[in-house]
Specification:
single chain; alpha+beta; Arc Repressor Mutant, subunit A; five-stranded antiparallel sheet; 5 strands; disordered N terminus
């Protein structure tokens, strides 16, 4: 019978620690609901998992042709400057990574040639000296980008890049799940509001012998005059049997 003996070498210990860190990340993301809270978790947890000083997450819908609109980050002031620089330059590691498969690594902005204007402004306006942008992909489609920033040139060695890729894989799954949940909630709310408005229209049609279009216009008129949501006006009619007074 063979006795199991754990590998106690430094490499094995690092591997176990990395696996434990990723398990903690997966658990934290699983316990988080909603897209924005999930993005916040990804940004904050990235600082613990990859050697970096700042992190930002952008989802695909928040990108325009040339500008990355941040969804969440660990330093809003710094990232606002970074977004402005990327917008003025017309490109950035994050913008390129959105449509890429592999990470985009800029380990020394002082010597970066692929993004000359971006790199020059980053060095002049921020303390960032190294950037790592990792695509977030789901079913081969671009979902967003995880970008990590460091004060130190050369911060993102192959091990750091590998870790960032693993974080991005977990993040992509969690972000897609959160987006799906948010869509379902919005759809459910829209359906519920539609039913409420439909019920209110039905009450007015039966009570006043008017057509549905006229009933809807009455509700809309009160909504506009009282500066209230249409669904709230409808809900009051359904609950009380009376339309709100026009203010």
């Amino acid at each position: 019978m063979t006795t199991y003996r754990p590998d106690t070498t430094a490499g094995a210990a690092d591997g176990i620690r990395a696996a434990s860190d990723l398990t903690t990340l997966a658990r934290a993301l699983a316990e988080t609901s909603g897209l924005m809270p999930t993005l916040g978790q990804v940004a904050r947890r990235s600082l613990d998992l990859v050697p970096c000083d700042w992190a930002a997450v952008a989802v695909a819908e928040r990108f325009t042709a040339h500008r990355a609109r941040l969804s969440d980050s660990t330093d809003e002031t710094l990232m606002a400057a970074v977004a402005d620089i990327a917008g003025r330059a017309g490109t950035s590691p994050g913008i390129v990574a959105l449509h890429a498969v592999d990470p985009v690594v800029c380990n020394d902005l002082d010597r970066e040639c692929r993004f000359p204007e971006y790199a020059r402004e980053m060095v002049a306006r921020t303390p960032v000296r190294a950037v790592l942008s990792v695509p977030l992909r789901m079913n081969e489609a671009p979902l967003g980008v995880l970008t990590l920033y460091s004060r130190a040139s050369g911060a993102f060695d192959p091990e750091a890049v590998d870790r960032a890729v693993l974080v991005a894989e977990h993040a992509a799954i969690a972000i897609e799940a959160a987006r799906t949940d948010d869509r379902a909630e919005h759809l459910e709310l829209a359906l519920r509001n539609s039913r409420t408005i439909g019920a209110a229209i039905g009450i007015l049609v039966e009570r006043h012998r008017i057509c549905t279009d006229e009933a809807f216009e009455r509700l809309r008129g009160i909504s506009q005059h009282n500066n209230r949501k249409l669904v709230d006006v409808a809900q009051e009619l359904v609950d009380t049997g009376a339309l709100p007074q026009v203010r």
